[in-house]
Design brief:
By secondary structure, the chain is α/β, with parallel strands linked by helices. It has a single domain, classed as Phosphoglycerate mutase-like (Rossmann fold), CATH 3.40.50. It contains nine helices and six strands; from the N terminus they run E-H-H-E-H-E-H-H-H-E-H-E-E-H-H. The chain has a six-stranded mixed sheet with strand order 3-2-4-1-5-6. A hairpin with a 5-residue loop joins strand 5 (209-213) and strand 6.
Length: 241
């Protein structure tokens, strides 16, 4: 049995400020750092020792992974970063206050942009404050100007197939420290969650989701390591049933 743990980054500064973050490289809050360390403690208690950690190129995910590994006493685990594990690109919503955006466009429209499977927000205008084209991490890459969860999955899945799945098939346990939507994309892929039900899947910050996989990478069990924090959310088994 191979084990995979998905770890969403701890609370970020823009999580705290209720802003659409996407690809903006904001850091963790003190609470986010504490969540990451607590995640590491839970990983250690579960006896989980990954052969490798995959993460995005954004500091809130990278720092969450690093803090968790340190807290778990797993300082020598190799780390692989890739932009394809980045958070969903929020397009023209990037940087906006979520409550103010709902007041301007209506809560129903914002809910469609945020939670639907295949409707992206308006694209990000070029040349603005959050234009990522000149960012050296993305030079030479075909990066989006907005994304839905569907198009997020479209970039995550090839990376999963080429880089992550082979490690799991080789019998290695893997930790992925990433973001709410890139991890939701992986959950949709692994559990074949229908398009109309993935909206109900929420990955809590800093709470490791352990998934046991068979030889064909089919899930046979899934649980949040901090079950108390997961009780307010739909259990993963209920969502995928």
């Amino acid at each position: 049995m191979t084990r995979l743990i998905l770890l969403r980054h701890g609370q970020s500064q823009w999580n705290l400020e209720n802003r659409f973050t996407g690809w903006v490289d904001v850091d963790l809050t003190a609470e986010g750092e504490a969540q990451a360390r607590r995640g590491g403690e839970l990983i250690a208690q579960a006896g989980f020792k990954p052969a490798v950690m995959f993460t995005s190129v954004l500091k809130r995910a990278k720092r969450t992974g690093a803090l968790a590994l340190d807290s778990a006493g797993l300082k020598d685990v190799p780390v692989i970063e890739d932009w394809r594990l980045n958070e969903r690109h929020y397009g023209g919503l990037t940087g906006l206050d979520k409550a103010e955006t709902a007041a301007k466009h209506g809560e129903d429209q914002v809910k469609v942009w945020r939670r639907s499977y295949d409707v992206p927000p308006p694209p990000l205008a070029p040349g603005g404050e959050f234009d990522f084209d000149a960012d050296p991490r993305y030079v030479g890459k075909e990066i989006p100007d907005t994304e839905s969860l569907k198009t997020t999955l479209d970039r995550v899945q090839p990376y999963w197939d080429a880089e992550i799945a082979p490690r799991l098939k080789a019998g290695e346990d893997v930790l992925i420290a990433a973001h709410g939507n890139s991890l939701r994309a992986i959950v949709k892929l692994l559990f074949a969650v229908p398009d109309d039900r993935i909206v109900d899947v929420e990955i809590p910050t800093g709470n490791p989701l352990e998934i046991d996989l068979d030889a064909d990478l089919k899930p046979v069990a899934a649980r949040y390591l901090d079950e108390g924090r997961a009780q307010a959310l739909p259990p993963i088994a209920r969502v995928i049933a």
